[in-house]
Amino acid sequence: MTREGIIDAALSLLNQEGLNRLSMRRLADSLGVQAASLYWHIKNKSELLQLMADKICEKMDWPDGAGMPWREKVRRGMVSYREALLQYRDSAEIFADTPPLTPNRLRLIESLYKALGQAGLSHEEVVLTADLLNNYVIGFVMEEVRFAERSGQQGEENEARPDSHPVLPDMEKRFHYGLEIILDGIHFRLNRGASSLGE
Description:
Layout: H1 3-17, H2 24-31, H3 35-38, H4 45-57, H5 70-85, H6 91-97, H7 103-119, H8 123-159, H9 171-192
Helix pairs in contact: 1-4, 4-7, 5-7, 5-8, 5-9, 6-8, 7-8, 8-9
Protein name: Transcriptional regulator, TetR family
GO molecular function: DNA-binding transcription factor activity; transcription cis-regulatory region binding
Pfam families: TetR_C_1, TetR_N
């Protein structure tokens, strides 16, 4: 049993049962070992969640092309972020609840900072804008997952009511629309030459 194997098993269990049912004991059961043996590799559940988030980051493809415009870098990075989160059940909650202290997460943050700095934002604006983008993606994915769950329940009800045809929004289209609004705001601020965060 290795740390990497434990993390992979935890992600598999997450997809099967969700975050609320994930525990060190439940994870040990799925691996066929005693819970105490996990603590030789991982200190506690908090560290486990951080390592799971770091592993999910490996699914993200952040563009680092030197000649690519900052806007395209940020766009592609945020799209990849959303796609990675959607591969794992409740992963957005894990990212929201754990500090970004692991290597892969720190590298992604650094890449985002560089792209925003390339745009011409001040250091403080880079930090605040990166936080805004992170919160947008996490919040959107949380709502996207909840919407899918509600739609599934509603779909079962609609099977019994053939006359009901709800108009379901295209979540990917909504995500891109919101992201472009944020990018437009950054572009507008840069063109306006506003350096004061209070303006």
